[in-house]
Every structure is written in C-alpha cells, then in structure tokens.
Specification:
Blueprint: E1 25-33, E2 36-50, H1 53-57, H2 67-80, H3 86-100, E3 104-114, E4 116-118, H4 122-126, E5 134-137, E6 142-149, E7 154-167, E8 192-202, H5 214-231, H6 237-251, E9 255-264, E10 267-269, E11 283-286, E12 292-299
Antiparallel strand pairs: 1-2, 1-11, 2-3, 4-5, 5-7, 6-7, 7-8, 8-9, 9-12, 10-11
Bound molecules: uric acid (URC).
C-alpha cells in the first residue's frame, strides 16, 4: 500500500504545500585581524521546497538533500565565504541550494542576528595595541534589587541578569580530572562566553550611616565586572568568576559580598575537514544546552555570606 492511498473515490487525498530543512543553526564566525577580533553571531534556518511529492507519498528519499547537509552547508559557507552580512550570507545559501539541486526549486533562508559590542577597558583609551577580543551582547541587561527592612536594619542586595559576554581568545581549559567517562579534549584557545547573573550585598545597614550612591555604584560594579571578564586570561570559568567578584570587592567599599551564577555557553569548533576546509578557530557551533553552570560567592574577608545559594530565590 502506498502512503497516498485514500479510502473513498470522491475525496482524493493530496499533498499540499510542503517544505523542509534544518532550523536554528547557531553559527559564530570569528575573524582574527591580529589582536583585533570581529564576530558575527547568527541563527540560520533553512527551508527547501521542490519535487518532494515522492518522499511524502512513498518514502523515497531520492530527491531529498538531508537536513543535516543543509546544516553542514551553513557552517562550511561561514568558513568559505565568511559572513559579511546576514543578507549576503542568506543569498549565497539560497542560491546554492536552488542551483546545485535539480529537485529543489525554492529555498527560504531566515536569519536572526545577535549584535555584539566591544568591551572597552580602561587600557583601550591609552594604548593602541590592547587585545580586542572581548564583547558584550547588545541589548540591556535586567537590573535587580531587593530591599529588606525590619524597622531597625536594612539589607540591600542588588544585581543583574542576562548580561551576555564573550572572549574569542585568552581562554583555556586543560589539566582537569580524567576518569573513564571523560572525553572532553583539552582546550588551549577556546571561546569563553557566559550570561552573567550576579547579586551583590551592600554593607549599608543603618539609617545613620552614609547611604551609597546607588546609581554610581551600579555603573561602577558593572564596569569592574566587565573589565575583569575582558582582562582575565582564563584557565577556567571558575577563575574568571572569582576575578570578577574580587574586582568588585577590591574596588567598591560599599559591597561585602558578591554571588555569580554563570552558565558556560559552549562554542564548539565545527569539523570542516570532511568538506576539505580548515577551521582555524573561525567557525563555531553555539550550543544552547546543556551548559556548564558555575556558581560561587566572593566575600570581603571577615564578612558573612547572606545571599542565597540559589539566585532564583532572591
Ligand atoms: O571553565 C570551565 N570549567 C569547568 O569546570 C568545565 N568543565 C567542562 O567540561 N568545561 C569547563 N570549563
């Protein structure tokens, strides 16, 4: 029996509009111009249509370019043609699928682009040859605060969430424990990216004490956090986290405790060798899950921890 057999003669079953492809290919392309890096970060969805009746009716795949191949093409083209703009990249892809595959008559490429800005560190304005490989994703983070008052003492915990940052070099991860389940290759030059969720507790507790300037404090905490992220040569996200907290404690006397929850947003180098292409730390697959989750509190010496371990409880 064929798949398009139908029960009654008066109501034939017909295949209507159909399309297929790989959706949401997350590709990050790094261009390394000496110490100055440039990045493009896209979410690319491929949808193809054409002579696809047979695969629906009988299951014959003779006209089907696998969706897996459309994914590979996205990554290979990121290397071969680069990503000048989302439009240019989409045009290359659409043209390729329609002109190289006889059964494919139409290609629709949808692309979302995530914007990034450079993290400017204090050194940038003075010296010309600062490394420039640190980025913060465009769009505002969400600023948070919690105030508690028991009629006597105040506790103010402020923070932020959804501040996304990336270093395209100066990050390694090696020398870790290896047991019989360990397969992770050691990395000597990897991307380090995270979506910062942080909380910091002010030591202002009594009305009589000078109240901090909350606006200035927030701006400076964020600045120190970003500078520490950009300037730390990282051997682990744990080390970077500690540096971010330590910079805040060292520079902001009004704060005694900082807690971070940092998802390790993994960027995997795509193997382009099957396509005869060398991936010289240029094309990455940005995985959304699973992710490592690195969390810790950094305290001023002699102070007690009050921020809850689970930041969602604050
Ligand atoms: O910075 C990292 N810390 C880890 O604990 C870890 N574990 C892992 O698999 N990759 C990483 N990266």
């Amino acid at each position: 029996m064929t798949a398009h057999a139908h029960s009654g003669p008066s109501r034939p079953v017909l295949l209507g509009q159909n399309q297929y492809g790989k959706a949401e290919n997350r590709v990050v392309r790094v261009v390394r111009d000496g110490a100055t890096h440039h990045i493009k970060d896209l979410n690319v969805s491929v949808s193809l249509s054409g002579d696809m009746e047979e695969v629906h009716y009988s299951g014959s795949n003779a006209n089907v370019l696998p969706t897996d191949t459309t994914k590979n093409t996205v990554y290979a083209f990121a290397k071969e043609y680069g990503i000048e703009s989302a439009e240019q990249f989409g045009i290359h892809l659409a043209r390729h699928f329609v002109t190289s595959q006889e059964p494919i008559h139409r290609a629709r490429i949808r692309i979302e682009e995530y914007g990034w800005e450079r993290i400017e560190t204090a050194g940038d304005s003075t010296g010309g040859d600062q490394p420039r490989h640190s980025f913060v994703r465009k769009g505002q983070e969400t600023r948070l605060t919690q105030i508690t008052f028991d009629g006597d003492r105040w506790e103010v915990v402020s923070g932020l969430k959804d501040l996304v940052v990336m270093n395209t070099t100066d990050s390694e991860f090696w020398g870790y424990v290896k047991d019989k389940y360990t397969t992770l290759p050691e990395a000597y030059d990897r991307i380090l990216a995270t979506q910062v969720s942080g909380r910091w507790r002010f030591n202002w507790t009594a009305d009589e004490q000078d109240m901090p300037d909350w606006e200035t404090s927030y701006g400076q905490v964020k600045r120190h956090m970003l500078e520490a992220f950009a300037e730390t040569y990282s051997l682990s996200l744990q080390q970077t986290l500690y540096q971010m907290g330590a910079r805040i404690i060292d520079n902001r006397g009004e704060i005694d405790e900082v807690r971070f929850s940092l998802p390790n947003k993994h960027h995997f180098l795509v193997d382009l060798e099957p396509f005869g292409l060398k991936n010289d730390n240029e094309v990455y697959f940005a995985a959304d899950r699973p992710y490592g989750l690195i969390e810790a509190t950094i305290l001023r010496d002699g102070c007690e921890a009050h921020i809850p371990v689970d930041l969602t409880n604050l």
